[in-house]
Design brief:
The protein is α/β, with parallel strands linked by helices and 383 residues long. Helix content is 19%, strand content 26%.
């Protein structure tokens, strides 16, 4: 999921799904349709430098209110999901691409301003902002339906500032309309855990989901959404995860056919498996549990070192493949399916003031389901 991203001083904006690219002047020169705001700054959690989550590297700060470019929207943030990728950004597992970045890429909010070129949204619309912030629109990947692989892509909460804040700006072309059946808190985890889980399911190469046997390794935010989609399609789901009190219990509640420890061997051979846990040591046992011709999908942006394993584990035309970001089509299709199932996200809500504690809880596997920051809850004064 890494890539150089667009240069920070480059005002290159993609105009839409078709890959039209326009060049604009400085960001502050755009004409926006917006209500009068009685503030020029906002509160946001800023990463001044990566460090272990336990040391609380995020600092609650007053920062300038974002100014949307002509093709962008300004969104008042209502809720922001807490993702393991946020933890990788904060702790430096992912290289720093933007100084003083604001993390967060599962953002739900309402349109507060629109750039002069934006026609698809109006003030007050409820929207979602996800990981893929924008792409170049013209490279070989963007022009062939593989925008997730764009070498110049930018990413919310990593190469551009994200949703641990009162406001966020984002390209309108990469902003999602959200189904009405989900509250803001319920919708937030869908925007990464859900979308990436959906792409993982696609890459399993399972065509007939009726009675397909799917393995899930790790059962946090993504796993608890993925199992609901897979079961709705007719699959049997076998879950390997640690923590009987939270993750295993939730997997059982959500209808897993079998639940075992992270390294346990499922009682049947599996058609495919997805590893959501960032643990390279799970690859050999996961391969061992897959049928010939099956696929092992690696769903994370970061993984610990993968140990060597015997060729026999991959022989038999077994396939290992990674998932890199997502396309906008993935997001749009998933949100439709999520509403149809319908997905029920299990969330633990944290006050805006508790961003640091939320990341620690995520790191220690203390969150059952998905963690969400409620930006609407009272905010403390910054020091």
């Amino acid at each position: 999921m890494s890539g150089p991203g667009l240069a920070a001083n480059e005002n290159c904006r993609q105009g839409g799904q078709g890959g039209v690219t326009v060049r604009l002047g400085p960001l502050h020169s755009c004409q926006c349709l917006r209500p009068e705001l009685d503030q020029e700054s906002m509160k946001a959690w800023v990463l001044n430098g990566p460090a272990p989550a336990e040391s609380h590297p995020l600092v609650l700060s007053d920062v300038p209110l974002p100014q949307p470019a002509d093709d962008e929207v300004l969104v008042k943030v209502h809720a922001c999901g807490i993702c393991r990728t946020d933890l990788h950004v904060v702790e430096g597992d992912l290289a720093i691409r933007k100084s003083n970045v604001i993390p967060g890429h599962q953002v739900v909010g309402s349109i507060n301003a629109v750039g002069s070129q934006v026609a698809e949204f109006k003030l007050g619309d409820r929207v979602g902002i996800a990981w893929l912030n924008r792409t170049c629109g013209v490279c070989e990947f963007c022009s062939t339906g593989k925008e997730n692989l764009c070498d110049r892509a930018m990413f919310t909460g990593w190469t551009v500032s994200g949703g641990y804040a009162e406001y966020i700006r984002a390209p309108a072309a990469f902003t999602y309309r959200l189904p009405e059946g989900f509250t803001d808190i319920q919708a937030a985890p869908l925007l990464c855990a859900g979308i990436i889980g959906y792409r993982c399911l696609r890459l399993t190469r399972i065509n007939d989901w009726s009675k397909a046997k799917l393995g899930l390794y790790g059962f946090g935010a993504a796993g608890h959404v993925c199992i609901q989609v897979a079961r709705a399609r007719g699959a049997e789901v076998y879950v390997c995860t640690r923590d009987r009190e939270r993750h295993q219990a939730l997997a059982s509640e959500l209808g897993a056919t079998w639940v075992g420890d992270a390294h346990a061997e499922p009682p049947v051979s599996l058609d495919a498996s997805i590893i959501f846990a960032p643990a390279g040591e799970l690859i050999p046992p996961a391969l061992k549990a897959i049928k010939k011709g099956g696929t092992l999908v690696l769903g994370g942006i970061h993984m610990s070192p993968i140990p060597s394993f015997d060729y026999s584990l991959i022989y038999g035309e077994r396939v290992i493949r990674s998932v890199t970001n997502n396309t906008r089509s993935d997001g749009e299709e998933f949100l439709i399916e999520a509403a149809r199932v319908p997905i029920v996200t299990h969330t633990q809500v944290f006050n805006f003031s508790e961003a640091g504690e939320a990341l620690i809880a995520l790191k220690t596997d203390a969150i059952r389901g998905a963690g969400v920051l409620d930006i609407a809850l009272p905010k403390p004064s910054s020091e």
